Amino acid sequence: MNRVVLVGRLAQDPELRYTQTGIAVAKFTIAVNRPFLNQQGEREADFIDIVVWRNQAENCAQYLSKGRLAGVDGRLQIRSYQTADGQRRRVAEVVADRVKFLDRGRDTSQEGEDSTRQDAVEDNDFPDDVPF
Predict the structure, then answer these.
(1) 130 lies in a domain?
(2) What is the DSSP letter of 120?
(3) CATH number where 66 lies
(4) Tens digit of pLDDT for each residue in 91-128?
């Protein structure tokens, strides 16, 4: 069984590309907090590469951005390739079956008009131990 479920914050904006046949693929990295503190009493995070395909890739590129909270459900994939100078490289990444947007993005078109909305997520609603 190869199943991975992660919740973390995007380390950078998603990068959207298209294959030669026109299929959308987005790549991004999420930071997932480790469940323990290091020797200095700080929480560390693992940075995990995510790959998303087709319509979901376009949605991620449109609606996700650095710092947003996302849930990823997928499978771990290990692939290898050869660099231009002949070195062999291995890459571990999660190929997402589903990506859930777990917080609300800021809507700049209504900023100021409706800043007192009860259901809006404020920056201070997130734990202090997030690495961003």
Answers:
(1) no
(2) P
(3) 2.40.50.140
(4) 999 999 999 999 987 654 444 444 333 333 334 444 44
